[in-house]
Write a structure and sequence with these properties.
single chain; 374 residues; Creatine Kinase, Chain A, domain 2; two-stranded parallel sheet; 13% strand
Length: 374
Amino acid sequence: MKITFNGSPNPTLGVEVELQVLDPETKNLVSGAQEILAKTDGDHHVKPELIQSTIELNTDVCSNIMAVRTDLTERLNHLIEICDELGYELACVGTHPFSKWEEQDITPQERYHMLVDRCQWPARRLMIFGLHVHVGVPSGEKAIAIFNSLTTFLPHLLALSASSPFFDDADTGLASTRVKIFETLPTAGLPYRLLNWAEFQRFMITLVNAKAIESIREVWWDLRPHPGFGTVELRICDGLPTLDEIVALTAFIQALVVWLGEEYDEGMYLPVHRHWIVRENKWRAARWSTDADIIIDEDGNLQPLAEGIEELLETLSPIAKRLGSHDELMRVRDIVKNGPSYKRQRKVYEETGDFKKVVENLVNELRNNVTTSA
C-alpha cells in the first residue's frame, strides 16, 4: 500500500477549531450541533464531532496568517449569528468545567459509534475541545524530519494554549486536563519517532491491515503528517478562547515549521530531544504551563519554559517578518505575560466560586474578540 504525500510548495495554513455548544441559561453543554448544522446550508467548513455538544469550524486553505484571521472572523461571526437565532452560545476551551461526560449524546454517524464501541470508556469521556493547525510541506521526507523535531516544542505549544483546569465539577490541579484525557485513546498522545517516510508508510500498513485503524484520521497523535493534505498537523493545543490567541498560536506554529524546514534544507541537524525528555516536558507543561521548568539536555539541566518560549520567539521573528505574520507572532508574548486561559478561569472561580461565571466569561471572551476583529 503506497501512501502518497500531496506536498505543498508553500507553507499554507489550515485551522480547525472545536467549539462548545452551550445553553445560555445553565451554561451547560447542550446537544445542539445537528440544529446548527442544519442552518449552515451544507457548508463543509462546519462539521459535527464525536459528541453533539461540539461544532468543528474549519478554514479554507489560507496563504498567510491574515487570511486565517479574515476567514475565522467571518465564519465565527456567522456561526454566532446562527447560534443566537437558535438560542445557543459558543465557547472555545479545552474542557467544560461542570458538564458530565456521561450525559453527552454521541453524534449519529457510524464512525463515531464504531469508535465508542471499540474504545468504550476512554472514548465516552472525550468531552474535550482542541485547536488543530495544518502547515503545508513540500514532501513526505521533509514532513517526517520536521515532525520528529517538532516533538521538542510540543510543551511550548501546550503551555501557551493551556485552558482546561476544570473537569467534572472540580479543579484538577492541571493547566491542561484535556491532554491527559486524550492520551487514554490507543492511538493518541506523543507520536513515535520515525526514520523516514517509508517507515511512516510501514506504520500505516501494519495498523490498517491489523484493523486497528482505517486511515490517518484515526491516528490522534499530538502531531502527525497528513498525506492527503500535504501538511504537518499540530494537534497538541487546547481550544483557545479568543480569536487573537488562536491566530497568535497559528502564527507561532507556521513560523516554527518554516524555520525547521529551512534548517533541513540547509543540511542542519534539527533539534530532537530524547523521547523520555519530551514525555517529561509535556507532563510539566500540562501541570504548570508557562510556569514550568523544562529539561533542555540529557544532563537534566532545566530552563524556565517562559524563557524558552522567548528565545524561540527571537529565533522565529525574522521568519515571521518574511511570512507577514510578525505582529500576530508577537501576541504570544502577551499570552506569556498575562497568563494563558487556565489562569483567567481560575481567577474568575476564585473570585465568584461559580463555574457558571467561568463559562459566562469564556462566552464573552470569544464573542467580544470576534466582534472587535470584524
